[in-house]
Each structure stands twice: as C-alpha cells, then as structure tokens.
Amino acid sequence: METLQTLFGLWEDTGFHNVSWENLIMILLGIFLVFLAIRYSYKPLLLIPLGMGVILGNIPFLHEAAYHPGIYQEGSVLNYLFFGVLKGIYPALIFLGLGAMTDLSPLISNPKLMLLGAAAQVGIFASFLGAMVFGFPMAESAAIAIIGGADGNTAIFLTSQLANGLHAAGSGMNIQNLIGPVAIAAYIYMSLVPVIQPPIMKLLTTKKERLIRMAPPRTVSKFEKILFPLLGLLLSTFVAPASLPLLGMFFFGNILKESGLTKQLATTASTILIDIVLILIGLTVGASTQADVFLKWESILIFVLGAIAFMVATAGGIIFAKVMNIFLKKENQINPLIGAAGVAAVPDSARIAHEMGMKEDPTNHLITHAMAPNIAGLIGSAITAGLLLGFLL
Amino acid sequence: MKILTITFDLSLIDQYTLVITIAGYCIVLLALAIMAYFFTRLHTLQDFLTKRRLAVQNNASKEESPKVVMTGEENAAIAAALYLFFSELHDEEKYVMTIRKVSKTYSPWNSKIYGIWNTMKHW
C-alpha cells in the first residue's frame, strides 16, 4: 500500500499530472520563438534564450512541493537569476555594452538629426494615452507605452520598476506583473522591424523624397567624441535622473571606447559581458511568462497597443523629418526615410531606412545618416523611461 | 463600452495624464534639441578656433623664417640634380656574380657518425 502511495506521490509530482492547456500553449509559443529565430534568423541572440525561457517557465510542476523550481518561488535558481530583471541590473549592463560598441560620430557630425529620435518618442506618449483609455492603471499604461520605444531593455527596465506585480498604485489598485508580456512584445516588434516599418515608410513618403541625397557627414574630432558622452550624460541625467542606470552606463561604456586607453574594458563590455547578460535576461524574462501571469486578455491588448505605439513612433519620425525639410536649405535636406530610424531598434531600423533608400537609388547610401536618429532614439527612449519613472513612482 | 473585461473610456484621461503626456514629450524633445544645438555650436566654435590657431601659426612661421632669394641658375641646378637623382633610380647593374665561400665550424651535434643508427649497429 505504501509503495502505491509513493508511486502515486511520484505521479503527482510529474509534469504530466500538473499540466494544463495554458502551459501547453505557452510551451508552443516558446517553440515558435525558437523556430522564428532559427528558421528566419529573426534576432536569434534574443529569441533563442527568450523562447527557451518561455518553455522553461511553463514546465508544469506541483506548486505545493518541497522543492522550488519556479521563477516566482523564493529561493529557486531562476528566482535568483530573475533578481537582475526585477532590480533593473541586466538592462543597465546591456546599455554599458551598447555604449562600448556604439560609434556616436554620425550623431555628432549632424546633430540636428537628434530631433528625429526625439520626435519618434511620440509613439510612447500616444500609446500611454491609449492604454489609459483601455482602463489600465497609469503605471501599467506607462510600461505598455514604452514598447513604442522599440528597445527591449528600456521596456524591461521601466516595466520592472512600474509593473512588476509588487507595487501598488496610489489609488489602491493592484498593479499586475507585465514584465513578460511587455518584454516579449518589445522583442517581437524589434525583430519585426523589417515587416512593420517599410509599408509605413512608403505610405508617408513620395518617390522624390525617398531619392533625396544627403550631404556626406563631416569628420568628427576625438575631442568631440569624448565630449559628447560627458555632456550627454550630464544633460540627460539632469533632465531625468531616473534614467541614470541606463544612460549612465551607456555613456560610461562610450567613454571606455572613445578614450582609446581602456580598449580591453570596452571590448569586454561590448562582447563577453553583453553576451552573458543577454543569455540571462532572455532566459529569465522568457521564464517569467508563466501561463497564469501571461495568458490573459490584457496580454493581447498589450500586443495591440505595443504595435500601435511602434507604428506611431515610426510615423512620427518620418513626419518630423518632412517638417524639418520645410525649414532646411536644399543642400541640407533630410531623406525622410531616416526619420523611421528614430525608434530605438538599433541598428535594425537604420538598416531598413538604408535598404529602402537603396531600392529607389542603388547609389544612395543612407546607413550613416540613419544611425544618427537611431542612436538618438535610444537615448530619447531612455530619457522618456526616466521621466515616466519620475512622474509615476 | 466593454471589450470582455477591458474598459474603453475616454474620460479616464484626466488632467494629470495629459500633463505627463505633454510635459514628458516636450521635455524629451527639448533635451535632445539642446544637445543638438550645443553640438552644432561646438563645431562652429571648434572651426573658428582651428582657423585662428592656423592663422597664428602661419604668421609665426612667416616671422621666423628668413627671406630666401634664389636665382634662376640655382633653381635650374636643383631641378637638374633632382632629375638626375630620380632618373638614376633604376641604374644598370654590373651583372657580376659573386660566389661567397661560407666556412662552417665543425660541430658534432649534426654529425652523421654519431647518429643513433650507427650506435645501434654495435649492439
């Protein structure tokens, strides 16, 4: 009899006994993400850890058991790794790596293109209003809206601070844990840049505008390259101190690169360190999408609002470039295609702007110009995240 | 209007939400505009300073260097010397082959008589 009870206990422990259809759906979603990454090479560095994380986080187990394998169970391995997401450590380290690998010369050589990066932030604020209309509390609305910045790390950073399921809103309303849905939506839209952006770019520009040839960027001195991160850091963090973990690390990484004296540190930050953090952030964010947290109608709405935010941001950058052209001399005209690169999907949206330009005129290379609003978009979305944190925490 | 459990209500956008939206967007735009303005001015300033430095250097070098007056004959001599120098770069070779005898000091280290096979023959 005891043997039978032991065997039954063992059966109760297995995933076969505890599985639910929600778990299976999520496991299929994880497999789909891995498939997307391997079959179509859509952001494999992000989607493979993320997809595997989704599978890992949805393996069914007995919640009352003495062991704790779940990501939300205190003391489990995944729970410890998830700490880096909850406290915003991983996004900050990724920004360090990004800073160490980014050449800011295109931005310094043509500073007016920074405005395109700022203009694209309209997507975030528009979907903030949209999420509010759909009844999301303010903190959740801000977390959803940041998807429009098209930068997964900023999205994870802001969501981990505002909508991690731990804080309560001022009105006493419970705040849901949206880290999983927001991060997955942000990463998916980042990988779908080549699908989402081109139709909007074509719709909002004429053939004549797409053929605009921009003046080649000037050479940037080392003095300017060193001064930019210092001043950028001071200005952006003075405006939005809450963006310090992201922008502080970004500009610190850039100084490591541009000083020319700390090549080893810059190389480590931009290669080994960023790779380690990408593994951890992808896996843990994926694992945080447990069926009971993720499979809700709100998640679908988050995906829809995120897509709108992303599209509005793209349109905002393009329209702003067209408006700028009204005031610029003929020789300084901006090709509006690069306005779409104002979203922070670095460097994908810049590459798309370049490819769209090349389709119209194979000799018109826009990549260098498009990198400027792209980097400005990254900085702009981090400032926006800082401002939203400042307003809402 | 209700979409499942999700509300759709425009009145949820209150004054505070509008302030966050408008002020937030304006601040981001302004912050990046200030950065853009500063770096545009910085470049202009740097150009001005570089031009000024070059002008000062030019003036200094003009003052320091003594005025050199060269006659036509001297110029012609220099030109002829340069012409001869550059045209003689591929001069005719002597076509004499020299065989240099290399003498090596004897060393037992590579001597065949001390090879391992010779030693083994005696076993």
Characteristics of this structure?
heterodimer; A: 393 residues; mainly alpha; 2 domains; B: 123 residues; two-stranded antiparallel sheet; 2 strands; flat
Largest interface by Cβ-Cβ < 8 Å: A-B, 43 and 32 residues
Task: Note the overall shape of chain A.
Answer: elongated
Residue windows where pLDDT falls under 50 for at least 5 positions of chain B: none
Q: What does the main sheet of chain A amount to?
A: none
Largest sheet of chain B: 2 strands, antiparallel
**Order of helices and strands of chain A, N to C?**
HHHHHHHHHHHHHHHHHHHHH
Summarize the structure in words.
The complex is a heterodimer of chains A (393) and B (123). Helices cover 70% and strands 0% of the residues of chain A. By secondary structure, chain A is mainly α. Chain A has 2 domains: 61 residues, no CATH class; 312 residues, no CATH class. Chain A has 21 helices and no strands. Chain A is elongated, with a radius of gyration of 22 Å. In chain A, α4 packs parallel to α17 and α11 packs antiparallel against α12. The termini of chain A are far apart. With 123 residues, chain B is mainly α. Chain B has a domain of 43 residues. Helices cover 59% and strands 3% of the residues of chain B. Chain B contains 3 helices and 2 strands, in the order ββααα. Chain B has a two-stranded antiparallel sheet with strand order 1-2. The longest helix of chain B has 50 residues. The mean pLDDT of chain B is 78. Chains A and B meet through α8, α9, α15, α19 and α21 of A and β2 and α1 of B.
